[in-house]
Hints:
The protein is α+β, with helices and mostly antiparallel strands and 173 residues long. Helices cover 16% and strands 26% of the residues. It has 2 helices and 10 strands, in the order αβββββαβββββ. It has a 5-stranded antiparallel beta sheet. The chain has a 3-stranded antiparallel beta sheet with strand order 7-8-9, with no helix packed on it. A two-stranded antiparallel ribbon has the order 2-3. The chain starts with 5 loop residues before the first helix and ends with a strand. The mean pLDDT is 80.
Amino acid sequence: MNKKNLPLIIVLSIPFLMIILVAALIYLPGSGQKPEYNFLYATGNNYAYGYENLYAVRNGQLAENTFPQPDPNFPKPIYPKPGDVRLYVYDVTSGQSTEITFEQAKQLRLDPSNMSPDGYEVVSGNYGGALFFSGGGDVNHQYLRGHNRSRQLNLKLSGPYAYSNFQFLGWIK
Length: 173
């Protein structure tokens, strides 16, 4: 290597080193963190009329919603029935969902906030698009996002519109 070319090599390597430095500053802080909190979700709750969910979290525990009798002057709303709605615990370590009963779910202590205590959240995919391009999008999946990372969840969904039939209920404490 010629000493005359050394300044040129240094100047040309600075942009490459800057890219590596920025990538390291973005990805390294969250690299050792893994999600710790499992969550409870429901599926089979997708109803076009009434917009009511069968289950809700009240005072840290799962509760069953009661529905009013419909007004006879209006079309009858379609409310979910207990057999239609299924409850699952998603294990963030194994990436698997396990179905549980309402009685089992009532025993869990739940935090219904969007963000888990360790800084993760469950988010829907979105329909991406740029100014001149309409990117395909990924509205059919849910993701676990946090600490500059995101991973697709392996959920068990049911119902006529399974992709939109996900109800996050809470983080298990």
